[in-house]
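Please review this one:
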Amino acid sequence: MVTGGRCFSGLVLAFVTTIVMTFSHQAAAQGATSKTLAQLTEERQMLTAQLDQYRKSLDILQPDGTPPEQSANAAVRSLAVEAAALKQQLITVTEREVTLLQREIVAASASRTESTTPITAVTVAEVEPAPLNAMESKPLRTHNSDNTQQSDAENVAHLHQLLEGFYTELQESAQVLPTSEELARREQSLRDADPQDKIPFSVDKVQLNGSEGSTALAAISKRLIDSRIPESRRDIAPICTIKTRLFDTLVSSENRSLKPVGKNQYIARVRLQPGTTTLSISSHQWEVQLPQQVAATDFLITLYHPVDGTPELHVFAVDDLLAVERPHIPAWLPPELDIKSEAG
């Protein structure tokens, strides 16, 4: 019986050692997680303080309630861009913080479940049914995490609210501010616009030839990187009503939305029929004449509609544009227009 008792004691000791080592590893992991969480919380609070300063500055510089992304003041728009970048950083940090907090909650729940399961008693009973008169010990217990779990859960809920606010604000900004890729395409388009290829034309001229159309696109490229011109919302597309009459008979009628490309500039590719075509946008109208003998042709419509200015609309045939020796085909053109030079 002594030998059996020693074997039993050895099994108990080994089991207790395993449990202690397991909890030691868990404690070390929890310590590392807590340290990371503290760092993330500190970083989030620092970024939030910086964002508050941006917001105060924007409130002072933009007191009329106009979204700062659409401000005519280049300095205000610059602050809006920096504020949006801060919000993106805050989202990244806060998402990591939420993830770790949720992991802690799950781990604490699992640990509490394990601590309340009578594993020790079952194991001992299976090894040796005799009573343990010679050895008594306190039951193994983990740290009571009820309060901690409740606090973590409240923090997670609070952080989710913060994230929802940041997502909404960034989504609003994204409807106005161009992305880094769009900015790069604008810069590339300006470099590609060769001043020697520009043929002057009157801004009041509606129907352009291919060379004039190339110049019109180059003018848009310059406008898109002009810091003096405010950005505009890109979730609002003007509707153009297109009606074509031939011998006083309506032969075609459709409504087309123009694609916003930034800074109150819009563009579309449409197919026009021979005859007199009237293009109507809001209360403005323009006319285009196509000879009776020509076939229906694809045209580009460009519209510049400044907030406090007269809208400027131009129409030119895609084939005429591509027939120019070195047409300006800007990188900012929406891909769905499917316009490429022979070289591109």
In short: The beta strands are 239-246, 249-257, 259-262, 265-272, 275-281, 284-290, 297-304, 312-317. Residues 2-174 form one domain.
